[in-house]
Amino acid sequence: MRTHRCGEVRPEDVGRRVRVCGWVSRRREHGEHLAFVDLRDHTGLVQCVVPGTVDVRSEYVLAVEGVVRARPAGTANPDLATGEVEIQECTVEVLSVAEPPPFAVDDRVDADEHLRIRYRFVDLRRPRMQANLRLRAVINAALRAGMERQGFCEVETPLLWAPTPEGAREFVVPSRLQHGTCYVLPQSPQLAKQLLMVGGMDRYYQIARCLRDEDLRADRQFEFTQLDVEASFVGQEDVLRFVSEAVLDAAERATGTRPSEIERLTWAEAMDRFGTDKPDLRFGMELVDLTAVFAGTEVRALAAPCVKGIVVEGGGETTRSRLDQLTDQARQLGGKGLAWFRVLPTGEGGTGLDGPLARFLTEDDVAGLLVATGAAAGDLVLVVADEHLTVCTVLGRLRVLLGGRPVSEGPYRFAWIVDFPLFEGIDGDGNPVAAHHPFTMPHPDDLDRLESDPTSVRSQSYDLVLNGWELGSGSVRIHRADVQSRIFAVLGIGPEEAESRFGFLLGAFRHGAPPHAGFAVGIDRLVAIFAGEESIREVIAFPKTQSGSDPMTGAPKPVAPRVMADLGLREVPAPE
RNA sequence: GGACCUGUGGUGCAGCCUGGAGUGCACGCCGGCCUGUCAAGCCGGAGGUCGCGGGUUCAAAUCCCGUCAGGUCCGCCA
Questions:
Q1: How many angstroms separate the CA atoms of A425 and A432, rounded?
Q2: Could you read off the pLDDT of A534-570 as tens digits, one per residue?
Q3: Which of A36, A92, A320, A445 is the most buried (most CB within 10 A)?
Q4: Distance of A217 CA from B4 C1′ (whole Å)
Q5: What is the pLDDT of residues A23-46, one digit of tens each?
Q6: Protein chain A, residues 500-559, with a C-beta closer than 7 Å to any atom of nucleic acid strand B
Q7: How far apart are CA A385 and CA A337, in angstroms?
C-alpha cells in the first residue's frame, strides 16, 4: 500500500515514484492550480503538491502517489526532516473522510485533558503521544532484554485470583458458575511469583498488569504495569544487582546515557536527612539536627525530643501570609507548628534573627542555630520540634514543597533505600503493622528482638527511588515456617486466620520452598519520568480520570439485568 | 471522607475581584480570492443553555448556596 513512510522521504529519493499514506495535517491552498498538503504518519510530515481542486480536509486519510522532487530553491523548510523535498505530480486517493477534529492534532496546542481522553484515538496521533508510547515500548524491550540476559524466564500469572484481605482494596469479579463467590484481580502477582519459586522456576520476571481499587493520582491509576521479578537462592544484594542492571539498561536506551551506579541510603538515613523514604536527591536543603542546640532551651515551642530545621536559601523575603500558610501545612502534616526565622544581616542590632520566637532565643541559641544550619543573611530557617519521626516527615514535606522541582526534570537521581523497618506503627488492636507485607524476612541481626522490641526490627526490604518518586519495592521473603509463624504471631494473626488467608501459600511452602527474593518496578512512572511527563496518564494509551471513569468508553457503566441475574447479583440501595 | 484550582461558540484564552445588551483576542470551521506555501495570506460568514440548579438584585458569565465534571493534593495505596 505504501513505499515510504511520510517522515522518511529524503533527498536520496528524488526522482523516485513513491506512495505514502497518512492523515492530512494541514492544507495550504493557492487557487485552483496549486495546494500543499502536509501528510502525517507516526514518522512525521511530508509535503505533497496537489491541484487546488482536490477536496481533502483535516484528518482525511489519504494515499498519495507521486514523484519525489527537490523543492525549488529557497523554499526548503529546515524545520522538517523531509523539508528539502516534496512529492509532486500527485494522484490522491481518499481512503477515509473525517470530521473536523475536536482539538488540534498538534503538540503546540494543549487541549483539555478530559477531551483528549474522550477522543484518545485522535490525541494519540500527536507527536507527543506517539513518542511517549514508543518510548514505553523501547523501555519494555530493554527491561525484557535485561532480564533475559540475566537468566530470567517470563511467566504469565492469572488475572482471576483469590481474595487475600490485606493491603490495597481489590477489584472484585463475581463468579457466574458459583453464585455468591468472587475472584479478585491481583494487586500484584506477589503470591503467584512466590509459588513459581516453590515450583522451581528459579528466576521469574513478567511485565505484569496490577490492579488496585484505590483513589487515583497523577502517579496512580487503577491499572498499572510493573516489571515483576523473583529469584531463588539469592539474597538482597543479588536482587539489587539484577534490577539495577535492567533499569540502567532501560535508562540508557531512553536517554542515551547510562547513569552511574545507583547510590544507596538506609531508610534511617533517608528519613534523617530528607524526611522521607523517597528522597529527591537532585537538590540539597537537607534536614539539619538542632536537638543539641536547643537541648536546654526555655522556649517551650522548641523543647522536644527532636528539633530539626531546613534552610531556604534567599527565603528571607517570604511573606508573612505564606509563612502562616506553611505553618498550617505543618500542622496538617501532624506537627505542632512551625518556627521560622529570617536571618538578618549581622551587626544590625540584636540577634541576627527575625521571627515570632526570635526574641526568646539566647545568644547561644542563635549562634548554635546559625552554625549548625550554615544559614546566611537573607535566608529563611524553618524549625520543627516534636517526636523524631514527626519532625522528619513534616520538614521532608516542606523541603519538597519549597525546593522541589518537576519529577521529570533532569538529572536522573536513582537511589536504593534499604533496611526499612519491618513494622510501621501499631494498629487499633495494638499489633504492629507490616510495613511491606507479612512475608518479608527480618534483618538477621534483629531477629532476636522480634518479640521483645518489634518496631526496632529492620527488614530485608528495599525501595528504588527516582527524583522523589517511588519506582518500586521488594524484599527477601520468608521461606521458613518457624520464622513465618513468629511474624504472624507478632502481627496478631493466629494460625487459623493465617491458614484461611494465605493457606495455599503456606501449604506450598511445606512442600519445599527455596530461599527467594524479589522486586517490582513501576513501569508507568519510569516511562513518565524519561518521557518528561509529570503524570503517568501521558504514557498510558487509554487512561482513566481521577474519579475512575473513562470518558471514551463511558466505563464504568450499568450492566443489563440479564447479566446481573447470570451472576446472581441484585442492585441494592446505597446505605445512608 | 476532606482541602484547593478550573468550567465562557468546535479549540485555547480574556472578561468575574468592582453586577449593567453574549463583549473581545487567537486558532479552527464554512464560502470566496490567490501558482511556492509551510501554524500560508487576504475578504466575507456561521457558530453561545457563560457546566447545571437555586438564591440575592430593577438587572447575574460576574455576588451567595448547592450540585456535576476535570485537575492537584491529604486520607487511602500490605
A1: 6
A2: 999 999 999 999 999 999 999 999 999 999 999 999 9
A3: A92
A4: 15
A5: 999 999 999 899 999 999 999 999
A6: 535, 537, 545-547, 549, 551
A7: 8
| Nearest protein residue, CA measured to C1' of B2 | A332
> What would the grid cell of residue A245 be?
542492571
Q: Quote the CA–CA distance of A477 and A474 in Å, as a whole number.
A: 9
Q: Is the dihedral of CA A215, A219, A223, A226 positive or negative?
A: negative
Asked if A229 and A520 count as a contact pair (C-beta separation under 8 A), the reply is yes
- Structural domains present in chain A: 6-96 (2.40.50.140), 283-403 (3.30.1360.30)
Alpha helices in A181-307 (DSSP H): 190-198, 236-255, 267-274
Q: Kindly report the length of chain A.
A: 576
Residues facing residue A65 across a β-bridge: A19, A91
Q: Which three cell numbers stand for residue A217?
A: 493520582
Quick check: A19 CB within 7 A of strand B? no
Cα–Cα distance, A287 to A303 (Å, whole number)? 18
Cα–Cα distance measured from residue A208 to residue A210, given in angstroms and rounded to the nearest whole number: 6
A357 touches strand B (CB under 7 A): no
